[in-house]
Specification:
Helix Hairpins; 4 domains; three-stranded mixed sheet; HSP40/DNAj peptide-binding domain; 371 residues; elongated; alpha+beta
Length: 371
């Protein structure tokens, strides 16, 4: 008999992974389905026999000690082992468990800006699979239990041996009678039809932390779908959908608000009250205020989700120029301009910079409320 290591083209100290890798490479080249040349069939038989010995620790040890690795019976090549060598896989042997883990669930919840800022508690109605109360997840009616399958004898699979040019090939497939479980439910529960779970609506309480924003997800372990056969539940993910506010615009942890003041008030200075998430707050507009300027109210923004404190509320001031003037008002403005030495055709060209950036942001902010 040819040296089995030489047949596979490996050394005597080859690891199991090296043995499998070498056989897989040769088998792909010589397998009759790939290379139908009858001349290579004997070679394919030889590498398969070599792999069957060297991949089995007991047979390999017997061969290395000079014994007959095939003593005690004929050559029975496990089809699953050969396919494992081809594709690097390997199925689970034995019956499948009836109780399996359930799927995760995802629901959306709408919050207004106040709730997102300060957090809240909500009651959620969730439609998911829950454990069947009638059978307690067993799937069986009354006090009965699953019975051992009479076809596969509890193994969950049936085997068949067929002869081929490489010897006896054993194939395994799931048992059709029990579906691979190894047991059958002769008397299924009338409520869940043997699944161990039913669809139901339930109410759960959820605590929304302060500072969440649109798209955040809250993870609730074990609140998802109950698995088949009464298996453990998956998880529930609650996705935050933040509703737009009427006059506040969120930018991360900061808030923006736009207010309009008359030209005279901006020139002379004034104090105005605005509505915030914390109630009414006073905004001090210094004399000579320009439309590009802002007032920052510290700590009146959104709570930080991670870390303490809050962002700021940024007040954008829109200085309103009067459009319709009486003759008397026009004369007053002309007199005012003359006293200041201002001419109507006088313009000042500014360099592009910070003011331009702020004007651009303010324009986008203002446009968001007028679309």
């Amino acid at each position: 008999m040819a040296d089995l290591y030489e047949t596979l083209g490996i050394g005597r100290d080859a690891s199991p992974d090296e043995i499998k890798k070498s056989y897989r490479k040769l088998a792909r080249e010589l397998h009759p389905d790939i290379n139908p040349d009858p001349a290579v069939q004997d070679t394919f038989k030889e590498i398969t026999a070599a792999y069957e010995v060297l991949s089995d620790p007991a047979k390999r040890q017997r061969y290395d000690l000079g014994g007959d690795p095939f003593s005690g019976g004929g050559q029975n090549f496990g089809f699953g082992d050969i396919m494992d060598a081809f594709f690097g896989g390997g199925g689970n042997r034995g019956p499948k468990p009836r109780a399996r883990a359930g799927q995760d669930a995802l629901i959306a919840i709408e919050l207004d800006l106040f709730e997102a800022c300060f957090g809240c508690e909500r009651e959620l109605d969730v439609d998911t699979a829950v454990r069947c109360e009638k059978c307690q997840g067993s799937g069986c009616s009354d006090s009965s239990k699953p019975a051992t399958c009479g076809i596969c004898k509890g193994r969950g699979e049936v085997q068949q041996v067929t002869r081929s040019f490489i010897g006896n090939v054993m194939t395994s497939r799931p048992c059709n009678n029990c579906g691979g479980y190894g047991t059958v439910i002769a008397s299924p529960c009338s409520e869940c039809a043997g699944d161990g779970r039913v669809r139901s609506r339930r109410t759960i309480s959820i605590k929304i932390p302060a500072g969440v924003e649109n798209g955040n997800r809250i993870h609730m372990s074990g609140q998802g779908e109950i698995g088949p056969g009464g298996g453990p539940a998956g998880d529930l993910y609650v996705e935050i959908v933040e509703k737009p506010h009427d006059f506040l615009l969120r930018d991360g942890n900061n808030l923006h608000i736009s207010i309009s003041v008359p030209m005279s008030a901006a020139a002379l200075g004034t104090k105005v009250l605005i509505e915030t998430l914390d109630g009414a707050s006073e905004v001090d507009i210094k004399s000579g205020f320009q439309s590009a300027d802002t007032v920052i109210l510290r700590g009146l923004g959104i709570s930080r989700l991670r870390g303490g404190g809050r962002g700021d509320l940024i007040v954008h001031i829109d200085v309103v120029t009067p459009q319709r003037l009486s003759k008397e008002e026009q004369e007053l403005l002309r007199s005012f301009a003359e006293k200041r030495g201002e001419k109507r055709d006088h313009v000042t060209i500014h360099q592009r910079g910070k003011a331009d950036h702020e004007n651009g942001f303010f324009s986008r902010f203002r446009d968001s409320f007028t679309r």
